[in-house]
Amino acid sequence: MFDESVIKTIFGRLTWESFPVHEPILLVTFIVVMTLGLGIVAAVTKYKLWGFLWREWFTSVDHKKIGIMYMILGIIMLLRGFADALMMRAQQAIAFGASEGYLNSHHYDQIFSAHGTIMIFFVAIPLIVGLVNYVMPLQIGARDVAFPFLNNLSFWLTVAGALLVMVSLFVGEFSRGGWLNYVPVTNLQNSPDTGPDYYLWALQIAGVGTTLSAINMVTTIIKMRAPGMSMMKMPIFTWTALCSNVLAIAIFPVLTGAFALLMLDRYVGTNFFTNDLGGNPMMYWNLVWIWGHPEVYVLVLPVFGIYSEITSTFTGKRLFGYSSMVYATVVITILSYLVWLHHFFTMGSGASVNSFFGIATMVISIPTGAKIFNWLFTMYRGEIRYELPMMWVVAFMLTFVVGGMTGVLLAVPPADFVLHNSLFLVAHFHNVIIGGVVFGLFAGMDYWFPKAFGFRLDRFWGKVTFWGWVIGYWVAWTPIYIVGLMGTTRRVNHFDDPSLQIWFVIAAIGAVIILIGILAFVIQIAVSIINRDKLRDTTGDPWNGRTLEWSTSSPPPAYNFAFTPQVHDLDAWYDMKDRGAERPVKGFLPVHMPRNTGAGVILSGLAMVLGFAMVWYIWWLAALSAGALLIGGIIHTFNYNRDYHIPADEVAEQEDARTKLLAAGA
Length: 666
Known about the structure:
- The protein is mainly α.
- The chain has helices spanning 4-11, 24-46, 50-58, 63-94, 105-139, 148-167, 195-223, 236-267, 281-315, 322-335, 351-379, 388-410, 413-419, 423-453, 459-485, 501-530, 572-579, 599-615, 619-637, 648-665, and strands at 591-594, 643-646.
- It is built from 20 helices and two strands.
- Strands 1-2 form a two-stranded antiparallel ribbon.
């Protein structure tokens, strides 16, 4: 009916074979995802919520709403990423000897690549950025971030990247090159399919969002602190957010550059990372790990800040060694640039290079260890309240220290030659990411949830979540340390030695226990919403907090503070309570605020279309969407209607309502 060249022009390399209808696992997944998606769309339509969501959430430039949306994205992607983890664990538990399991190597390779990509780029980063977005402006007494529109755009670019990864599940396939899309596996001759292209475009789009967000956060902390809040009076969480985002600004352009060069190899036929014509695949590894190791600290530094805030609050004491905590954070930030080569001691750089990076890796553990002692000394002789956030802190200290020690072991080049590419390494980084980052994120969500929504999370289901993750982690990953030490290789979907099977069965049981923790978290949120009146907090300060975010109502008004707070000491809110400072109840003025805009959603949607078109070689659509992106960006620059004033009467009304609430609860 149509000439083949016309079809190719219209659809590029997209054909009926691109849809995996012959794969039963993918088909069932597609049906489940579509059913859930259509159910949500139907519910939103039935209750006429589209207008509300567009006006109040999707187009919002309020840092608090954007923070919450980042958290929701992270939780949704956690469910997807963990589904991949369960599939891997099930495969490895049964694929021994004559049994090939249920996943062939082609499919298994995509699953472990997608799992790592999603968990780091679309779970850990959005959850961290979400917490920083929500809490940091409140902690420094700001009304919003420095660039409110940029904040909205950053979020929707991250969503666009996440959606591209999700599309790859059902249209075409994902990369088989691991979570960093390694060459030479992802060179054009080895992977002529769409997988590496999906990866590259998804992460380029999301990476722009993360970089812009980091610039925004750093500018906010440097320029928008409340009067009197010098750098050494900033809360530790704000300090760690600053260092983390400074790191992100420095490293994400390197990753973007590495991906751009690989794109040129795949699209234009250059030879940056090929095995011939002057190319060097190891240069790609160097570039991605110059990003990759500091990225670990981009994730873990804000989490260290969360632990510091929680430890100080629930021991009723000022953080022990505040200055040393700040200096340790800055030292980690600087040293994190000097350790990347420990990811490939086996590259053949020679003893002197390996020695330098091995020693640098051991040195970076010193400021991290200093932080552990600071938290311990803060707890020493404190009146510790074992609320849920504090339980996470103790679990973190016990779990993370083991991960730190295995990290120092891997920093010894001769030991690494034995353990490189083994499951011991995989267990190590899951130890520090789960025991450090994930535990800290749950602690932060438990801690700041009442600030965001005005009611606490249910304690019983919180404990089920806690024990599911803690017990599940140890059951899932201790056996992997053991088989790794025995020399078992990573990224393998079938094993010949039947004596190893018992360890993988135990690991699979651990993954199921973690699943109980994840499901309990979802139930915890649902139960808390249902019982919100019982769990209500009218004070704005349910934990007897010490920093400025607890001085405003829960949830805070759009303008955060009716009057910009004056800071006199570290732990500004504790200092105000100690001095008997009174809330202002009159003399309110109009508040200048940024106006909502839909430009972020539209530009990010166009970026996603551009990415999809480039993956499938649909050149006309790529050109159209790129042109529309450019024109849309230019049009937005002519939008001068970017701000408005909340009238003084409205501010007075909200503040009076809070005064009554406080009086009723007193």
